[in-house]
Amino acid sequence: MDRMIFTAMNGAKQTSDQQAVASHNLANVSTPGFRAQLTVMQSVQVDGDGLKTRDLPLASTMGSDFKTGPIMTTDRTLDVALKNGDGWIAVQQPDGSEAYTRRGDMQMDRNGALTISGNPVMGENGPISIPVDSDISIGANGAISVIEAGMRPDTISEVARIKVVNSNGVQMERQENGLFLPPEGEGERTLQADENAQVVGGALEGSNMSPTEAMVAMINTQRRYEMQMKVISSADANDQAANKLLSMS
Questions:
Q1: CA–CA separation, 184 vs 227, rounded Å?
Q2: How far is residue 144's CA from residue 227's CA, in Å, rounded to a whole number?
Q3: How many CB atoms lie within 10 A of CB 108?
Q4: Fewer Cβ neighbours under 10 Å: the N or C end of the chain?
Q5: Which helix (H) or strand (E) holds 237?
Q6: Residues contacting residue 164 through CB under 8 Å, at least 6 positions apart
Q7: DSSP H or E stretch at residue 91
Q8: Contacts of residue 108, Cβ cutoff 8 Å, sequence gap at least 6
Q9: Measuring CA to CA, which residue among 222, 177, 225, 174 is closest to residue 38?
């Protein structure tokens, strides 16, 4: 295969992978607590016999952007935002293990279970369940208090406390389901509750991905892809011209 075509084709493939990440970021500019994915294009030597004389580009996801998103007031009872940029809300995964998220738009199902994106919200003693049709309030420490339907206001009682953990600067790893866990090989992946955690009720942390930045990234990536396609077209035109010259000799 023509080396020029191979090089451009590989570059187009890696650019396409980068575009997928940029599209994912753009699609989540309105997702509460979203952490933008970061990609980098790096040069990698081609493996083979003899001396390594050629490099090819490789797009890789280097992690996530952990800067804090803007906090927006919603006045919705079940919305919470975390004050600490290293704080995470604990949720239960389908396999029963614990994972973490910055999303705070909790939902309550018909049985009173609190969930975030379908994952049960964890409390100090397991998944949180609240009496249905109760008046709910959430304190600054994540404590959930309720007044059950038909009861007097002075009967308010605390039923659970949202488990909020602190990553203490550890770079959390995004899982395929969008939840986060501490890196493998760095000790226990289930974090302990942070007793000093502070939450803001009736508010949500927005995505830390700017729509403008996401659009600029997509446009730049698209232009780079088009340039690589032109290189392939030029290589093909050169090959056709060379074939014509050979056929005339």
A1: 39
A2: 56
A3: 18
A4: C
A5: helix 211-248
A6: 82, 87, 88, 89, 90, 142, 193, 194, 197, 199
A7: strand 87-92
A8: 78, 114, 115, 130, 132
A9: 174
Cβ-Cβ contacts under 8 Å for 144 (sequence gap 6 or more): 123, 128, 130, 136, 137, 138, 158, 159, 160, 161, 162
pLDDT in tens, 76-99: 999 999 998 899 999 999 999 999
pLDDT digits (tens, 9 = 90+) for 146-173: 998 878 888 889 999 999 999 988 889 9
Residue among 175, 187, 181, 158 nearest 88 (CA): 181
Gyration radius of the chain's alpha carbons: 25
* Signed CA dihedral, 179, 180, 183, 185: sign only: negative
C-alpha–C-alpha distance, residues 106 and 118, integer Å: 9
> What token pair was written down for 86?
């290293």
DSSP letters for 98-158: EEEE---B-EE-TT-BEEETTEEBEETTEE-B--TT-EEEE-TTSEEEEE-TT--GGG-EE
For the chain, the structural domain boundaries read: 3-67+208-248, 71-205
What whole-number distance in Å separates Cα of residue 88 and Cα of residue 20? 26
pLDDT in tens, 84-143: 889 999 999 999 999 999 999 999 999 999 999 999 999 988 999 999 889 999 999 999
CA angle 51–54–55, rounded 5-degree value: 125
Nearest to 131 by CA among 112, 144, 147: 112
